[in-house]
Design goal:
- The complex is a heterodimer of chains A (213) and B (147).
- Chain A is built from 9 helices and 5 strands.
- Chain A has 213 residues and is α+β, with helices and mostly antiparallel strands.
- Chain A has a 5-stranded mixed beta sheet.
- In chain A, strand 4 and strand 5 form a beta hairpin.
- Chain B has helices spanning 2-26, 29-37, 44-67, 71-94, 112-132, 139-143.
- Chain B has one domain.
- In chain B, helix 1 (2-26) packs antiparallel against helix 3 (44-67) and helix 1 crosses helix 5 (112-132).
- Chain B is 73% helix and 0% strand.
- Chains A and B meet through helix 1 of A and helix 1, helix 2, helix 3 and helix 6 of B.
Amino acid sequence: MAKPPSKNEFRRLWTGVGLIAACVLAVAVGRATQKPWMPDAPAYRQKGPADAKAVLAEFGDFQCPPCGRAVGVVRNIEHMYGSKLRVVFKHCPWTHSHPWAMTAAIASECAGKQGKFWEMFDKLYDNQPEWTQTDKAADVINGYAYAAKVDRAAYDQCVKGGEGERLVKEDMKDVSLHFINSTPTFFINGKRFGGAGQLSREGVNDIDRILGK
Amino acid sequence: MKIALGMAGRVVVGAAFIYSGYGKAVGPVQEFVSVLESYYLLPEAWLVPAATVLPWAQLILGVFLISGYLTRLSAAALGALLLAFIGAIGYTKAIGNPLDNCGCFGDLHFTPTQILILDPILIALAVSAFLYGKKTWSLDGWIEGKP
């Protein structure tokens, strides 16, 4: 016949259960009280009201074809939710594989400082096949900025003086910190979605849930 | 001296794993999946299970070690985990994977090289916790009637 457990064995068992329960409780409290990570960006790289309940952030690279294809999905989502949604763009240029990605990111930043970020965003993605397949991509990209009527002197100074690059590299810290391994990567109130497919399949449900639809 | 070494081992290694495991367990699992993905070490089907289980193992074993519960078992398990982490970091370096953040401590950035320095120190402390950490100020001591 098996011996009944001793007093020490009972103590050991219940102490273990208590410690594990404390861990579970601490994690539950942490999850309940943790604010979702909201990617920060300058105001010119954000669209929609500052107090919107749903925030959609995109880590994108202007030269990446899947990012170009995702633009339509994001535009649809913006159209569906209108002023209930804030959209934030974060730079993630893959400079090893996309030689003009940094140039485009810098140009968008320098135009952005003059309030023309989203115009550049549209131009760069809508014309992606044009500028990514020319040796004179920098000229074409600058041409988009000039066509958006930026102050040329300030824009050129920002591009050549390193200010634009500094701003892009500031964003790249979040790329590293949050292990963004591919673009586009989206976050809706801190929850990650890899690619436009996942965003349209699952992200929309999340926005509905956040907005209480 | 031995008592101090045992306590230091328990507190430092336990606290490191509690910090590391808690942050990951509280955050969305996809965050840690991305970290594991960047190591190119596990098959895709294992990423979500590993990203779910590992933070809890780190947290619970860290709590066990710091409180002196199953001290030897938790010190040995955490030592083995540290060895596995060294292996994983070594693998990324060997294949030339340019990670600039190991992803070990959430918002705290450590490069793989820094981890290759830090982890052996933690292993030494885990060994001292294994050898000398069981009896003083431990739940094991209390359970066995030797507080």
